[in-house]
From TrEMBL:
Annotated organism of origin: Bacillus timonensis
Keyword Oxidoreductase: yes
Pfam families according to UniProt: FMN_red (PF03358)
GO MF terms held by the record: oxidoreductase activity
Alphabetically ordered keywords of this record: Flavoprotein, FMN, Oxidoreductase
Signal peptide as annotated in the record: none
Protein name according to UniProt: NAD(P)H-dependent oxidoreductase
InterPro entries, alphabetized: Flavoprotein-like_sf (IPR029039), FMN_Rdtase-like_dom (IPR005025), NAD(P)H-dep_FMN_reductase (IPR051814)
Membrane-spanning parts: none
PANTHER family according to UniProt: FMN REDUCTASE (NADPH)
Amino acid sequence: MKIVALAGSIVGSKTKTAMLKTVEILKQKFPKHEVTLLDLADYKLEFSDGRNYFEYEGDTKYVTETIMSADAIIIGTPTFQASIPATLKNIFDLLPVNAFRDKVVSVVVTAGTAKHYLMVEQQLKPILAYMKAQIVPTYVFIEENDFLRKEIINDDILFRLDRLVDDTVQTYHAVDLIRKAKEEEYGF
């Protein structure tokens, strides 16, 4: 199973901190799975101009092809102006409309205040559903006061990240069983 952990911003440290912890948990609990961290701050991405994702070159091609080859994606995003950052929206724009078909997607959100928790429900989940993702219903919402010196200090958040990792892998296995059963119906 290929899992991509996507840190969807090029600024700040909280989302990257959360995604590094998520990757650590993934590798500890599921060492046989291939886990890739894509921190958008590490790449120089082109803005989407309507081409197919495989027509881009360099970092843009690498990032989009890595996402497209994943079985599961854990998206980490900060909340900027009560919305997702433009860098994450650009990723969605670079990919085809059915990019997440047969993929499980879960979410980790960082925000300065609890007032932004609805961003996931009202903005991010509709985009993921439109792109045909199998969305893990629960997500981890991490506030600024849950961090200290680039570390997560809230044990409840660590527990919820652990549970999100389990839910992501279990959801993938359930979706995979359903997909295989449907394929067997065709008999060829």
